[in-house]
Amino acid sequence: MKKYALAILLVISQLCSVLSLESTGPAFMWSPHIDMKLEENVNYQTLSSKDLARAVMSKGTWSNIMCKGKSSHQHVDVAVVFVGKELQSSDISGKVIAEASLIHLLKDSFTKSNFSMAYPYVSANVKEGTLENSVLEEFEESCDHKLGVGSIAITDSCSIDDQKVSKLSGMHAVQEFIDLSMEKDTNGLTNLLVICHRGFSSSKNPEGDVFSELMSSLDNSGAKYAVLYVSDPYNPIQNPSNYQIGRFLTEAQSGNASLDSIFLDSIFCDGVCQIKKSLLEALFVTIVLLIILISGLCCMMGIDSPTRFETPQES
């Protein structure tokens, strides 16, 4: 019985480990204006969003340019956090490239910079909220809640709890913020810019084009900058009610409401969700079969049959 119990535990542990798999995305940090050598340029550990922000502040020396009371001779005008959504960790090392232009741009920026660091595996924990909010919270905690930046601006597509930050709408506003960072006297403080590609998805602009435009704006402005690119391939729906409203409008305008309902309902369960759902169903079926098997074995072992039989007497 101990062997059967051990086999059951092994099967359940393997299935649970598969179910706990998370979608991970890569992160890259670089700056052509910071000259510093690191012991390692790639961290292969799977990090959460808070672990990533903590590593950026410590090993990436962003604490020297963003915390009060710390001074650095290598000053930057703008620190950019770009949150993408189209790259997964497998896209970096895989043979099939999903977004070739974006990967080539990241590769060129990463290799040509004086200071660079790569994090191939970053998991976005839904319990921590949005990735951009988690990163900014960790920035403040790393500075002991004494964040010393000139100004913080985010695109209107980002979801951040702090309501005091300035919100930008479109790349034109981003360009103006970068130009103002050069013109406005901030007493040597670094301005923080957070861009989320979710807001640009509706304009049919690929992520590679948006990021290329951002890098061109930084280079043309002459500003000293540091960039953190992080991909969040799994983005939970923030306002499901908006999708419900869109569903009802679509059903009212189209004649085939049933197909539209199936299509819109599938938005709430992405590929990772479908895989976990299938594995969970397989886990339940496996447990039921194992229970039946163990019950049958216990019943067979409970049969008390004699081990020896008397020889029949001759009449």
Automatic annotation (TrEMBL):
Q: Which UniProt keywords apply?
A: Membrane, Signal, Transmembrane, Transmembrane helix
The protein's superkingdom reads Eukaryota
Keyword Heme, does the record have it? no
**Which Gene Ontology cellular component terms are annotated?**
membrane
Membrane topology, as annotated: Single-pass membrane protein
Recorded hits in InterPro entries, A to Z, give: VAS1/VOA1_TM
**All residue ranges annotated as the V-type proton ATPase subunit S1/VOA1 transmembrane domain in the record:** 279-310
> Where found in the cell?
Membrane
Primary localization class, coarse: membrane
Query: Which residues constitute the signal peptide according to the record?
Result: 1-20
Q: Where are the transmembrane segments?
A: 282-303
Q: Which Pfam families match?
A: Ac45-VOA1_TM
The protein here is known as V-type proton ATPase subunit S1/VOA1 transmembrane domain-containing protein
- What organism is listed for this UniProt entry? Saponaria officinalis (Common soapwort)
